[in-house]
């Protein structure tokens, strides 16, 4: 995503306030992701935002194009590189895992971004991607009403099937899928295997070894 198009440049307070107001929804999302985060190795979050997920998951590094978001992440102790997902200024095979949380819908070029993630991961490195699955009841609602939401009016939501296709084309093997958030009530919500019910979907994929 190009920085000039980033809808979050002026919305840090509103962004952080959502997680405080919807703390149980946030906890459900966080735990769905945490299940896939490795206990060993160095990780990075692509589109780290204010660092709210990275700081809770023990991820020390992040990439973020929006200046004000990156500055907020820096204050949380995250080492932030200001760049876009499609052009990562990171050496090949640097990280053991990468996380991306609801960033896919803002990317200019999803295949290029996924290829960049594949490039910076070591062989057998993990890519954990969380996204709003448009092929779910709530996902359909998001799609129909995105024009009413400043942050999402230009978003291009994807289905789990589409994300899986992009991952495979970028050189990843899909290992597991999990889902949560079945209603927008601020309640703790079940974390289930698979996709198709919960709007917040998480896929764990492994970089296919390059010989």
Notes on the structure:
It is a single chain. The chain has 211 residues and is an alpha/beta fold. 32% of the residues lie in helices and 23% in strands. The chain has an 8-stranded mixed beta sheet, sandwiched between helices. The model has no long low-confidence stretch (mean pLDDT 93). InterPro entries: SAM-dependent_MTases_sf.
Give the low-confidence spans. Answer: none
How many separate helices?
7
Structural class: alpha/beta
Shape: globular
* Beta strands, count: 8
Rg calculated over all Cα atoms: 16 Å
Share in β-strands:
15-25%
Average predicted local confidence, pLDDT? 93
Helix percent band: 25-40%
> What oligomerization state is this entry in?
single chain
User: Order of strands across the widest beta sheet?
Assistant: 3-2-1-4-5-8-6-7
Protein name: Methyltransferase domain-containing protein
Pfam family, one: Methyltransf_23
Organism: Streptococcus zalophi
InterPro entries: SAM-dependent_MTases_sf
